[in-house]
Amino acid sequence: MDGVGKSVALEQQTSSSQALALPAKPYLTRLAGWGQNQRADCDLREPELEGQVQASLDPQGTVPRGLGRSYGDAALNAGGRVLGMTRFNRYLAFDDATGTLTCEAGVSLEHILRDYVPRGWFPMVTPGTKFVTIGGCIANDIHGKAHHVQGSFSSCVDSFTVLLASGEVLTASRSENSDLFWASFGGMGLLGVILTATIRLKKIETSYFRQRSIRVKDLEGMLAAFTQYDHEFPYSVATLDVFATGARLGAGVLSLGEHARREELPGHLATDPLRVSGPPKLTVPFELPTLTLNRLSIRIVNALLQQIQARKPAYSHYEDFTYPLDMLAHWNRGYGPAGFAQYQFVIPFEDGPRRLREILTTILSSSELPFLNVLKCFGKQSEGVLSFPREGYTFAIDFPIRKRTAELLQRLDALVLNAGGRVYLGKDSFLDAATFRAMYPNLDQWLETKAKYDPRCVFASDLGRRVGLVR
Ligand SMILES: Cc1cc2nc3c(=O)[nH]c(=O)nc-3n(C[C@H](O)[C@H](O)[C@H](O)COP(=O)(O)OP(=O)(O)OC[C@H]3O[C@@H](n4cnc5c(N)ncnc54)[C@H](O)[C@@H]3O)c2cc1C
Q: Are strands 373-378 and 392-400 parallel, antiparallel or unpaired?
C-alpha cells in the first residue's frame, strides 16, 4: 500500500484536532439540488477533520452533502444544518496490485479519474457525471451504463467508516455491522456521516472506449437491440427521440461501448493511451430565460442529439463516452430560474414492454416539455436495503418545471407503481411518503436500522421528511 496525492497522516491530524469546532455562522446559505427546483436556506458547515464533523452535528437535524448532484432535496435541510463534505478529500492508501483505494468520503470521481487513470485505473461503477463524491455514490447506491454486468456502486465498496449520531465511529462492511453497511446504500445520508471508504477500481489499458451506435426505429426494436447487444458490450444506453410517438414510439439511438485495449487504438490516440482531460471548456454563465426552452428549441436540440449519437467515432475518450454533459459546466442553468426535474423509474421486465409503452406515451404526449433522456436495462439488484436499481427497464427524462409538471409526475408515479416499479430518490423532487412506502417494500427494515443507529433522528433532510425516512 502506498499513500498518494494529498494523503496525509490523517490519524495524527485528527487526534490533535478532536476538540476543533468550526466557528459559529450567523447566516444561512441558499442551497439547491442539481435540478434547482427546490432551494433551501441552510446552516452549511464544511468540516475538514473528523473532530470538526463531530463538533458540527446538530441534534436538531443534520444532513451530509457531497457535490450536490442529486436533483432534488436529498442534501437539503431547510433552516437546519448541512455538512458539506467536499473538504474531506484526502487519499489514504492505494494498493496498485488490486486497485483497492481507501479515501475520505468527499473525494470525487473527478479526482480519482485525474489521479488514477494515468496509472491505468478507472472507477468500477460510475454515474453519468464525474462530479460526485464517494459519500454521495454510497448514499444513492448509484448505477452506471454497465449496471447489467457490474451492478451498482455497492459492488465495488469493501467497507466504510461512519460517524454516528452518538459521535461513535463504526466500520461497516459485509462482515462487520453489515446491517449498517447495507442500509447505507440508498440510505440518503440519514444513518450517519460516511468519513472514509475502501473501494475497488477497475484495471484499464487505455482511457478510450470502443463504441458502436445503432439507430432503432421503434420500442420493440430498441428492447430487442438491448437483448442482442447487452452480452457483447458492458456499457449500453439509449437516447430516445422525444418527438417519436405512435408507431415510432421508442425510436432512438442505442450507444454501446467497452474499454478499448491498447493494441486496438488508432495511431493518433495510441501516442497517449491514458490521456486525462482538463476541466470543462464551456459554461452556461447564468440562468437562461424560461422562454429559451420551448417546443421549437427542444425539437432542434433533440434532432441534433440524435444525429450526434448516431455518428459517433469508433473510439471516444471516456469524457465523451461516459460524461458528455460534464463538458458544459452549469448546464442546469439552461432550464431557467424555475429549474427542472428528472424523473427516473425502473419497472420489472415482466410485462415491461407494454407498461413501458404506456408510461412513455403518457410522458411524450403530455403538454410538458420532456427533453434529455436515457433508457437502459438494469441487471440484478444489490442487497442495499433501499437501493433503487432492480432487474428491469429504467428510463430517466428531464422536464423543465412548469405549472402542471408535478401533476404529470404524480400520474407517472401511479403508472410506475402499478407496473411493480419504483422511482429513484437521487433524482426525485416530488414523491410522497405513501407512494414511496408502496414502492420500497424494505422500508420497515431500513427504519429499524435507523432506530438502532440514530434513535433521535439527528440525521434528517428535506427529502427524508417528505418521503417518511425520518419522523
Ligand atoms: C449529469 C448527472 C448525471 C447523473 N447520472 C447518474 C447515473 O447515471 N446514475 C446514478 O445513479 N445517478 C446519476 N446522477 C445522480 C448522482 O450520481 C447522485 O445523485 C449522487 O449521489 C450525487 O453525489 P454527490 O456527491 O453530488 O451527493 P449529493 O447530491 O450532495 O448528496 C446525495 C446524497 O448523499 C448523501 N451524502 C453525501 N455525502 C455523504 C457522506 N459523506 N456521508 C453520508 N451521506 C452522504 C447526502 O446526504 C444525500 O442524501 C447524475 C447526476 C447528474 C447531475
A: antiparallel
Distance 228 CA to ligand 1 centre (A): 31
Task: Please report, for the chain, how many H helices and E strands are present, in that order.
Answer: 15, 20
3-state SS, residue 395: strand
Q: Tens digits of per-residue pLDDT, 290-307?
A: 767 788 888 888 888 888
* Minimum CA distance residue for ligand 1 atom 8: 127
Ordered alpha helix ranges (H), 89-173: 109-116, 134-139, 147-150
- Look at residue 12 in the predicted model and tell me its pLDDT: 37
Q: What is the pLDDT of residues 248-270, one digit of tens each?
A: 999 999 999 999 999 999 999 99
| HEC letters along 329-342 | ECHHHHHCCCCEEE
- What is the position in ligand 1's atom list of the atom closest to the CA of 105? 41
The average pLDDT across 227-241 equals 95
pLDDT in tens, 391-410: 999 999 999 999 999 999 99
Residue 137 alpha carbon, nearest atom of ligand 1: 21
Give Cα 100 to chain centroid, integer Å. 21
Q: Which residues line ligand 1 (CB under 6 A)?
A: 34, 63-70, 74-75, 85, 105, 127-129, 132-133, 135-137, 139-140, 142-144, 188-189, 193-194, 325, 426
Closest ligand 1 atom, residue 188 Cα? 49
The SS3 assignment for 40 reads: strand
Q: Which among 386, 371, 460, 368 has a CA at the least distance from the CA of 423?
A: 386
One-character DSSP codes across 49-82: SHHHHHHH--TT-EEEESSS-SSSSTT--TTSEE
**Average pLDDT value for the chain:** 93
